[in-house]
Fold:
Amino acid sequence: MWALAHEQHGVVTRAQLIELDYGHEAIRHRLRNGRLHPVRRGVYAVGRPELSRLGWWMAAVLSCGPRALLSHESAAALWGIRPAGGRLTEVSVPDGGGRRGPEIVVHRRSGLNADDLARRRGIPVTGPVCTVVDLAVRLPPKQLEALVNEADKLDLIDPEALRQALNTRARRPGVALLRALLDRQAFTLTDSELERLLLPIVRRAGLPPPLTGRSVNGFRVDFHWPALGLVVETDGLRYHRTPAQQARDRLRDQAHLAAGLKPLRFTHAQVKFEPAYVEATLTAVAL
Structure:
């Protein structure tokens, strides 16, 4: 019992105890003498009643049946891609399974595939892709983008793999929103489109027209203001820049800084969708 409880963050179920040959009277005896403490229906804390957050999550999952999974906000907190908030624990169970309990939100659902089932810290949980899809319908765009970025930073989801994984979940709520986000972040303009969109921003920022497509410090740059000592580079396909490309970007920026220039870098999506931000940044840097 103690080894099992250790693996399960200090909790066991009545069914598990019976499988370990603890009879009903033995269980009652341990409840009376304080070696077991009721946590949820059929779930006990072993040794002491206090549980860690992981213990409460495990207890919630165990109380909802053998195929239950931590999910939604609780799963995101377990994966470390969103902070844990509130006292409610969210659990997903197959259609018709599971039961509600105090401070548990039960989602009855069908259609989860093998890739949606995972374990983290020993707790059954929806996988990172499933978790992000589940939260896509709840979060405003900025928070959803932060969620995807955090999962990428933690090496839980490669954004290109996420894009491919959405194809097997096409009918789930949230998939269309995620596709739109990924498409926007991978947005790429042609050179002529980029120039057409950026030049009006430059004028509004009070800057003179830049030189375009020139070689500066051994690198071809998108936009250059020699009199201002300013270089602007733009990146498309933000999510898909390889480590080698990122290293080259750093070398470019370092070369410009060493030459006394101010390098700025915007994504194509920022130029297209966030012109006010680009304008404000250009204005601040050019002062």
